[in-house]
Automatic annotation (TrEMBL):
Annotated source species: Cercocebus atys (Sooty mangabey)
Composition skew (Low complexity), residue ranges: 573-582
Region of interest called Disordered, as start-end residue ranges on this chain: 1-30, 522-597
Family: Belongs to the unc-93 family.
Gene: UNC93B1
Membrane topology summary: Multi-pass membrane protein
InterPro entries (UniProt xref): UNC93B1
PANTHER family reported for this sequence: PROTEIN UNC-93 HOMOLOG B1
Protein name, UniProt field: Protein unc-93 homolog B1
Chief location of this protein within or outside the cell: cytoplasm
GO molecular function: Toll-like receptor binding
GO biological process: antigen processing and presentation of exogenous peptide antigen via MHC class II; cell morphogenesis; defense response to virus; innate immune response; intracellular protein transport; positive regulation of interleukin-12 production; positive regulation of interleukin-6 production; T cell antigen processing and presentation
Amino acid sequence: METEPPLYPMAGATGPQGDEDRLGVPDGPEAPLDELVGAYPNYNEEEEERRYYRRKRLGVLKNVLAASAGGMLTYGVYLGLLQMQLILHYDETYREVKYGNMGLPDIDSKMLMGINVTPIAALLYTPVLIRFFGTKWMMFLAVGIYALFVSTNYWERYYTLVPSAVALGMAIVPLWASMGNYITRMAQKYHEYSHYKEQDGQGLKQRPPRGSHAPYLLVFQAIFYSFFHLSFACAQLPMIYFLNHYLYDLNHTLYNVQSCGTNSHGILSGFNKTVLRTLPRSGNLIVVESVLMAVAFLAMLLVLGLCGAAYRPTEEIDLRSVGWGNIFQLPFKHVRDYRLRHLVPFFIYSGFEVLFACTGIALGYGVCSVGLERLAYLLVAYSLGASAASLLGLLGLWLPRPVPLVAGAGVHLLLTFVLFFWAPVPRVLQHSWILYVAAALWGVGSALNKTGLSTLLGILYEDKERQDFIFTIYHWWQAVAIFTVYLGSSLPMKAKLAVLLVTLVAAAVSYLRMEQKLRRGVAPRQPRIPRPQHKVRGYRYLEEDNSDESDAEGEHGDGAEEEAPPAGPRPGPELAGLGRRPCPYEQAQGGDGPEEQ
């Protein structure tokens, strides 16, 4: 009985045709190694390269969406909890029954002071923290501090609320600076992965032209801020589905309110001290806070698990290796750049307008006239208007660069004039539709402002060595503006509108002046970024082109005579191969490789 031939020929075995297979290639022990373990015969290098960079681009999109969703959930939880907490603590019956003589209003005032005052010092430590932890890990740490603030509301005491508020205030500027830097870096990486075939004459990848990543940056910033502005709507969910069921109607809460809008003074003057019809049960409050805590934890997981690194490991080491003293000084040295000086009024106005939307329009015009039970819907209108208008920033792909910023300033200028002469009547609902339109239009202006400023900074400062400094300066000025609004919360509404109007006009004029200088070709004065200095020379690079090479090494390698190596045995193992570069292990051991005989 004849044996059947094997299904697959065995390597080294002699085929039925002797020592050669059907293609005429020897199939025995003399067969070429490439025929046995060579590359896949149908391998298409160009197609595999295209698929590789396509996966890279999808990874960048995943990073942008994860960072945007994480920021939305973080701020939605933070704003929703803070709003619910302040309303509950405002009611004097709730304070007396739940906490007795603990002094809850004093604790709330110190908590707000910690949130608003602490960011003033952020310019001193934000760049150091971002360079030390890295952009992604700084985002994760800051989101974790926001989650810590949420967790302290399980046990509301002075020693839990105030320290967590101070920690949260310290994390505000680092979170926003790292997020702005992260979105800008993602746009640059997406451009790099989309134009991977662009090479110079020698076959090496050439540096992309300045501003080439601007279209991607515009799209990514529009996506980020459309997600972020939805956080104001997410923050109202505890109010709509839980707290509104316990509130008095406007006839009770606004009984002693005499004037609203432009005629009002401070925040809700004459508002009733009891706003809760019945007190919520402690078990229900714990359930709501647990849901908020779970969402905050989900935001942490999004940033940790789905956000990739903003820089390569070698780039992050280079960013740290310029010296911690230089990292500390460089934000202050960037003040000499006239572009930043011209944009400072816009930075300040950006802080003014977002807080005016939450306190001026929502409280001074909205709650003062239509009651606390409609506060959530006013902020939802603002949120949806801002989120939808963030996509209007995409018009910058076809319009001149100043158009989105100037258009947002124009919308706010028109609304400020209208609000300056409008005083709604308390407890009258016929004009409530005007409030919703005003809130939505203010959101449109806010979206154009935030999207335009972040995109402009990413275009003007596209060097990866400067981006964290620039976004730190931007959000620090925002924090200073928010602190100023906190200090002036008791001013009359007309004074607040006047300050807002003057700042807006100054910001628009200063920005247009900056654009005029750029068109004239006035060169900005930027501080020099020091070269990276490493303690171990070339410990990550085996190529001749060492980007970590210090100035002294560069001069030594340009023709200077090399010193003779010291005599004696080397600490590392003796390896064969003369004239080669030392491996990283030998460099770490202090050796320079084998000596030439």
